[in-house]
Amino acid sequence: MYAVTGATGQLGRLVIETLLETIPANRIVAVVRNPAKAHDLTDRGITVREGDYSRPDTLAPALAGVEKILLISSTEVSGRLPQHRAVIDAAGWAGVPFLAYTSMLHADTSPARLAIEHRQTEEIIEASGIPAVILRNGWYTENHLLALPAALEHGAFVGAAKGGRFSSAARKDYAAAAAVVLTSDGHAGRTYELASDHAFTLSELAAEVSQLSGKTVVYNDLSGADYESVLTGAGLPADLAALLADADVAASRGALFDDGGALRLLIGRPTIPMQNLVATALGI
Questions:
Q1: Dihedral of the CA atoms 169, 172, 177, 178 (nearest 10)?
Q2: Domain 2-140+169-195+257-272 class?
Q3: What is the dihedral of CA 130, 133, 138, 142, to 10 degrees?
Q4: Which of 31, 66, 109, 283 is deepest in the core (most CB within 10 A)?
Q5: One-character DSSP codes across 245-265
Q6: How far is it, in rounded angstroms, from Cα 181 to Cα 100?
Q7: InterPro entries from the xrefs (predicted)?
Q8: What residue segments make up the domains of the chain, in order of their start?
């Protein structure tokens, strides 16, 4: 049995779709906080089990009989470490023999504050003794494009990354990598730095949007503090805004760049170009 936590999230659903290409539905366990949101998965023959990161008592039963688990990192930044620990502990109690975890690019050395909980989670996994693989995912290209409507309206992306290069990849690429390590052998004990084939700056992203949309869009670089103010002004919680602004500053120092090609090699194909995702987001 292959279990995917956070299975109704955007990455979780893509992992399940990829697994279904080679694994029978009745061999997949979708671990979800709210089973009522997973009827579509049940209808396809996937086993849906309640497993809430914040309710440890639900986790061990959700992992019963599981041979491999993908722990998708919680979205509750600055509070996810105890949630991750609960899943790892439950995997140990349930006797799960293999665990994969979605970490952050260069989590062991990254200056970004977002890397701290990932680094700590990796340490908990190592201490658990469960054979594991660490998938250090770079930024999702789709996350850059969340600001696309505002950029088209105002003619600018904003950030604090200066000329830092982002090796951002499509969520579908990271899902494919997760499916590979779950369904093939030889990954336990390994750490993969997962990044796209072609990095880009935010200025290059803006130029691509301009070319494809026919509208002039530029990149306006701000200080970290000013970018944080923009994010809070857009309605983001203060803690999250601070972390995202800090990540941009870290990117200006190379924290979100990698050219090792591990993602391409793992999934056996080139990564999806940023230009393709921009075109999709624009409806082209």
A1: 120
A2: alpha beta
A3: -80
A4: 31
A5: HHHHHHHHTTTT---S-HHHH
A6: 8
A7: NAD(P)-bd_dom, NAD(P)-bd_dom_sf, NmrA-type_oxidoreductase
A8: 2-140+169-195+257-272
Alpha-carbon separation of residue 186 from 131, 133, 169, 190, 267 (angstroms):
11, 10, 24, 8, 14
Per DSSP, the three-state class of 236 is coil
- 158 - beta bridge partners? 220
End-to-end distance of the chain based on CA atoms, in angstroms? 39
Going by C-beta distance under 8 Å and a sequence separation of 6 or more, which residues neighbour residue 223? 160
Contacts by residues 149-155 (CB-CB < 8 Å, ≥ 24 positions apart): 150/234, 151/206, 151/209, 151/217, 152/209, 152/213, 152/215, 152/217, 155/215, 155/216, 155/217, 155/218
Is 119 buried (19+), middle (13-18) or exposed (0-12) by CB count in 10 A?
A: middle
**pLDDT at position 284:** 87
Question: Which one-letter DSSP state was computed for residue 27?
Answer: G
Sign of CA dihedral 58, 172, 255, 152: negative
- pTM (predicted TM-score): 0.96
Cβ distance 16 to 44 under 8 Å?
no
- With the CA atoms of 80, 85, 90 and 91 taken in that order, what torsion angle do they form, in degrees rounded to the nearest 10? 100
Question: pLDDT digits over 163-208, tens only?
Answer: 999 999 999 999 999 999 999 999 999 999 999 999 999 999 999 9
> Tokens for 69?
């688990």
Length of the chain in residues, anyone? 284
